[in-house]
């Protein structure tokens, strides 16, 4: 679908955002779980690692959203 106005584009981006975050969330949860149970890290180190995981998650989601929306608009294949 090629959006013909900002509202259509907004809907496309919103739907892609929801799908992407839902798709990548299990990986983030796994990373957080592993970090929380890493006995080699102090609590402060665990929090720092979790913050890094969260930043990476948001970056990955953002990149994937941009790629997916542009690919759909431009008709690109995998």
Task: Report what the structure shows.
- Helix content is 81%, strand content 0%.
- The chain is mainly alpha-helical and 78 residues long.
- The protein has two helices and no strands.
- It has a domain at 34-73.
What can be said about this structure in brief?
The protein has 78 residues and is mainly alpha-helical.
List keywords for this structure.
81% helix; 78 residues; 2 helices; mainly alpha; single chain
Please outline the helices and strands:
Layout: H1 6-36, H2 43-74
How much strand content do the residues show?
Answer: under 5%
Shape: elongated
Structural class: mainly alpha
Task: Please write the string of helix (H) and strand (E) elements.
Answer: HH
The low-confidence runs, each spanning 5 or more residues with pLDDT under 50, are none
Overall number of strands? 0
Q: Quick one: biggest sheet?
A: none
Distance between the termini: 16 Å
User: Helix share of residues?
Assistant: over 70%
Mean pLDDT: 96
Enumerate how many helices there are, as a single number.
2
Taking all Cα atoms into account, the compactness measure Rg is 17 Å
């Amino acid at each position: 679908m090629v959006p013909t106005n900002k509202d259509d584009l907004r809907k496309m981006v919103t739907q892609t955002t929801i799908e992407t975050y839902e798709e990548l969330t299990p990986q983030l949860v796994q990373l957080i779980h592993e970090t929380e149970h890493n006995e080699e890290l102090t609590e402060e180190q665990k929090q720092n690692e979790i913050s890094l995981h969260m930043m990476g998650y948001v970056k990955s989601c953002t990149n994937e959203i941009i790629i997916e929306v542009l690919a759909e608009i431009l008709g690109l294949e995998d």
